[in-house]
Amino acid sequence: MSSNAKHKAGLPGKQDLEAMSIFRYELRKFLRVSEEICNAAGITTLQYQLLLHVRGFPERRWATVGELAERLQAAPNGTAALVSRCETAGLVARKADKTDRRQVQVHLTAKGERCLFELAAEHKAHYGSFGWVFGAKEE
C-alpha cells in the first residue's frame, strides 16, 4: 500500500464528519447554556466547574489543586489562582492534608455547596435535551 493510500485510508468519511459535526454542535449548545446559567448566578463557568469537580471527585468530597488542574485541563498555577478567587468569594476553603503536609485539600463551604447544587439542578434540567450526558433523553 502506498503512503498516499495509507493517508487516504485514515481520512474521515462523510458519516464521520456528520457525527463530529453533530457532537461539536451539541457540545457548543451545552456550553452556551452553561455560560448563561453561570452568568445569571454571578459566577464564571470555570468557578462552577471547579465547584463541580471538588464535590464530584470520585469517592470523596474534596480534591487537591493538582487533581482540579487535571479535571479542568489547566495549568496548576492557574488552577491555584482560580481556587484563590473562589476562596475570596467564600465558595471553597483550603485545608492542610493531615497525612501529607505537602498536599492541600480544597473543600466546598456551605455557600459553595448551595451554589453548586442550585446550578447543578439547572444544568441537569438542560442535560436531558442533550441525551448523551445521562443516557437516553428524559421524557
TrEMBL record:
Pfam families the UniProt entry points to: MarR_2 (PF12802)
A single BP term in Gene Ontology: response to stress
InterPro entries referenced in this protein's UniProt entry, alphabetically: HTH_MarR-typ, MarR/SlyA-like, WH-like_DNA-bd_sf, WH_DNA-bd_sf
Transmembrane segments: none
Signal peptide residue numbers: none
Coiled coil (UniProt feature): none
Annotated ranges, domain HTH marR-type: 20-139
SUPFAM superfamilies: Winged helix' DNA-binding domain
Gene Ontology MF terms in the entry: DNA-binding transcription factor activity
PANTHER family named in the record: HTH-TYPE TRANSCRIPTIONAL REPRESSOR YETL (PTHR33164:SF43), TRANSCRIPTIONAL REGULATOR, MARR FAMILY (PTHR33164)
Protein known as: Transcriptional regulator MarR family
Organism: Caballeronia insecticola
